[in-house]
Specification:
alpha/beta, binds NADP nicotinamide-adenine-dinucleotide phosphate
């Protein structure tokens, strides 16, 4: 049976490349994007997900589990970067970066 793989941030960059590769290898791949409708040429389905929003995470997993029996592999790739001198980066931007890359959610659970 084909393994099901979920890749967060499958719309561009590393996540998209991994997804394209795994599709070619015969896996059942699902990716995510905050704006899935923007990406009409994806080789695998993109589900809506914002990793900084708990409700969005729950909705995404619930929707995927309606299509597949289980998720065999999660590639937790979605993230953002900041470049530039630390002292010039607004604190709100830093907090947003940590929420997306580290805390992954806006709740305490
Ligand atoms: N490239 C590098 O040199 C490098 C170095 C160190 C670490 N990384 C890490 O590797 C990962 C991939 O990097 P990349 O270079 O491929 O970046 P990228 O091309 O900018 O892609 C980032 C992906 O993450 C998604 N994403 C961004 N914010 C999100 C959010 N709040 N919720 C859900 N998805 C979100 C984007 O999807 P949408 O915009 O469609 O939602 C996109 O698919 C990131 O975690 C990055 O921090 C990259």
């Amino acid at each position: 049976m084909r393994k099901t793989i979920l890749i967060t941030g499958g719309s561009s960059g590393i996540g998209k490349s991994i997804g394209d590769f795994l599709v070619e290898k015969g896996f059942e791949v699902y990716g995510t994007s905050r704006f899935p409708k923007k990406y009409t040429n994806s080789k695998f389905p993109l589900l809506e997900l914002d990793v900084a929003d708990t409700a969005s995470i729950n909705r995404c997993v619930k929707n995927l589990l309606k299509k597949v029996d289980n998720i065999d592999v999660l590639i937790n790739n979605a993230g953002v970067g900041i470049t530039g001198p630390m002292e010039e980066i607004p604190i709100e931007e830093m907090k947003k970066n940590f929420d997306i890359n580290l805390f992954r959610s806006n709740s305490n659970d």
